[in-house]
Amino acid sequence: MKKLTVVTLTALVVFFALPARAGQMDWTMRLTLNHVATADADPAAKRKVGVMDISGPAEIEGRNAQAKVLVLYDYANGTGPWQVYMTLTLTDGSLTTYGSGLTVADENGLNSRFEGPLMVVAGTGRYANARGSGTMSGQRAAKVGDDVQIDYEISLKVTE
Description:
Elements: E1 2-15, E2 21-42, E3 47-60, E4 63-76, E5 80-90, E6 93-104, E7 112-123, E8 131-140, E9 149-157
């Protein structure tokens, strides 16, 4: 298992709950790349398709949580589309988001940037009625599967 870099997520979150609050939440996650499964879709074009299983502890405004992330990608020399599912589990429920977007790497397949929209797709407990959307963007300064920095911004509505 490969330990990924600390990922600091700053989420602009709007809550409509009891009591109502709005503002910025700071999330910190230390994620481990548990498994990568890849297939050479077109070796001549350096095209790979793959799935990454990532998990680890998270802290959301001082509260402990667990993050589980699945990333699906289809990259030619480090560039191409991706999809991500992320579930954050806290003591009072869980929240699952889905995102998709595009990664663009330099000519060597390194130093890539990615960006795409996110949406809340499910929740349990306190987050059972959560709705929201936002963006996910970041950069990777090495090959696919190496350390990555992610910025995650989502507007979230939670009604209890």
